[in-house]
Amino acid sequence: MCEDLDILQMLFSIYNIVRHILLLNDSSIFECIVRDENIIGVVSMLEHDPHHHIEVGSYRNFLRSHSQFKEVVPFGNADIEGKVRQTFRLQYLKDVVLQHIIDDGTLSVINALIFFNHAQIANYIHHNQKFLDELFGIIRQHDDPEKMRDVVQFVRQFYTITKGLPVGYRLGLFRTLSQHGLFLVFEYALQQSDRALRTTGADMLMSTLEQDRVLVRSYMLDQYRQQHDQPTLLELISERLHNDPCLEIRHMCCETLRILLDTMGPPFESMGMSTEMMAGSVAEKETDDFLAMFYDNQARGLIAPLASITAADVSRLTASSIHTGMLNFLCDVLTNMVKYHGQRAKKLVQSSGVIKGVSLLLASKHNHLKLSALRFIRVCVGMQDDVYVKYLISQNVVGVIVNLLLEMLPRDNLVASACRELLAFVANYRQSSLLLHLLGAHSKSLEKAPDVLEYLQSAYDNYLLSLEQSTNGGMATPTVSTGRRSAVSISMLVGRDSSAAGHAGSPAGVASGLWSSAVTDEIEDAYLESLDDTSDSATPVTITSPVPEGCVINGISESTDSGLSPKLPPDYG
User: Fold this and answer.
1) Do 284 and 290 form a contact (C-beta atoms < 8 A)?
2) What is the rounded CA–CA span in Å between residue 15 and residue 18?
3) Dihedral sign from CA coordinates of 152, 154, 160, 163
4) 409: DSSP letter
5) pLDDT, tens digit (0-9, with 9 covering 90-100), for 195-252
């Protein structure tokens, strides 16, 4: 009547009365409000907010038009159907009708009601075998595309309401759903031309994988053993990653593969124990079998676009290109494979020639591709495996990194920092093969970056000194103190010929640090001059055994002011 007579003051008063009733934060009041006979009248009164203009009739019209729910499979239970409607209305009240007046107390009451409704709905579906058989039977029959789409959307909404439930309950729920055909829904969705349907399928698969990766691996392994004519779920994921026109779907497929191949344990825990711990050794065996199946059948095809890329392809890449995003994703997946999978990943990297493709990405115009390639190379170097090191050297990857560093030096950006960090790692961990290669083949190029060259040279000198110390039974080499700044090592004079022969393979500029003829002549001259000085001035010559400067003792580098120890340049800080 007030609306018909347009009595605004009375409408505002009615609104304030209803608002104060709701702010009592009584759950029984909200349960009464969302009943079929009350909800339209209540939202009608809440349309007349004096402080916010709301079109008259907007709330009630929305509820009338959207309250008709489409049942893919009938619940067969009036209470559950009522809970579904009640939950929808509570959600609408929270997000739309009460958004301007809701407080923390009201919000907690509404959220509690929604949570209990979700728990009852999920529990009913979880234990209703007939309902689940009918629901997933629609996917198996393949006779009604519209109904199959509805099943996908239903499962998506069901996933949404279970997100707030306890982790342990969700584990059992997903395993029950998988026994009735949950993964068939993912496979159907990923093969559709509808982008929204593919996105929904990929999102649900990733949610399942984050919750219980053992379950997903077991299904994929069983599917491979059965050898169906249809593509497997793992093949569909790889195909979507390579060919899907939607970057979002490619990203989700890449993340799915990353989680699948991560053997370090699940991200969620239940009751203090991880899923793999609860499954015991069976899960460990299945994980190993899954990795064996993946590397035997899928790994080479997965990284094929990266292994077969050419310099011309790299030059044509654009920032918005789908192919650019895919290469970035593949670099990340390959990095995790090398990090976690040991010998399997090593054999794949060697046999596929993928390092050549990765090194080509270092010449890309896009810094994010360069950084992805550098992350992969950094992990290979960080494995401290001679096989990776020799392969990187043979493919001239080290030279490409040096050239990239020199190119980026004036800019001092993230790419330059990543290159410096990689070289600093080589120096700090004294990887002799890489140090020899850097200072031998690339010393002239590195002269443009003197701080880097000096740091590498110092690291190699210290490496040689530590070797010299180890050959003397862990004792420091005796030196002749001449009263000058430098001390002459006796072993440098006595064994220089044999040592020079032993270091004949050292590159120019590296072996010369200790054993080249110029330096040894200089040492000999210093020794002879010390003898002359002794005879002239009667200065006593003492034989001491100091610790060689910069030498490592029990993992600690003893640095002095002689400049021999590698001090970190400012850029490494």
Assistant:
1) no
2) 5
3) negative
4) T
5) 999 999 999 999 999 889 999 999 999 988 886 678 899 999 999 999 998 889 999 9
CA distances from 272 to 126, 168, 282 (A): 24, 11, 19
Reading the block at residue 531, the tokens are: 């003898």
Q: How far apart are CA 356 and CA 378, in angstroms?
A: 15
Residue with tokens 């979880």: 126
CA distance 105 to 196: 37
Q: Please give the pLDDT value at position 430.
A: 82
Which amino acid type is present at position 288?
D
Give Cα 421 to chain centroid, integer Å: 20
Nearest Cα to Cα of residue 182 among 133, 136, 114: 136
Under a CB-based contact definition with an 8 Å cutoff, are residues 381 and 367 in contact?
no
Q: What is the pLDDT of residue 565?
A: 36
Dist. CA 183–CA 190, nearest whole Å: 11
What's the rounded Cα separation, in Å, for the pair 254 and 366?
20
For the cut 50, the answer to whether the pLDDT of residue 497 exceeds it is no
Q: Which of 101, 81, 95 is nearest to 36 (CA)?
A: 81
Cα(559)–Cα(551) distance, rounded to whole angstroms? 8
- In total, the chain counts a number of residues equal to 573
Task: Look up residue 508 and give its two tokens.
Answer: 């120019």
- How many CA atoms are closer than 13 Å to the CA of 227, on its beta-carbon side? 2
- 503 in Cβ contact with 511 (< 8 Å): yes
Give CA 67 to chain center in angstroms. 42
Whether 173 and 124 have beta carbons less than 8 Å apart is answered as no
User: Which two three-digit tokens encode residue 241?
Assistant: 């990653």
Task: Tell me the HSE value of 90 on the side-chain side, using a 13 A CA sphere.
Answer: 25
Read off the pLDDT of residues 340-359 as tens digits, 9 standing for 90 and up: 898 999 999 999 989 999 99
Report residue 465 as tokens: 């000194």
The β-bridge partners of 270 are 273
Max distance between CA atoms of the chain, in angstroms, equals 125
pTM: 0.73
Cβ atoms of residues 452 and 420 within 8 Å: yes
Which residue shows structure tokens 């559709």? 192
> CB neighbours of 245 closer than 8 A, spacing ≥ 6?
195, 322
What are the tens digits of pLDDT across the range 396-422? 999 999 999 999 888 878 999 999 999
Write out the DSSP string of 313-337: HHHT--TT-HHHHHHHHHHHHHHHH
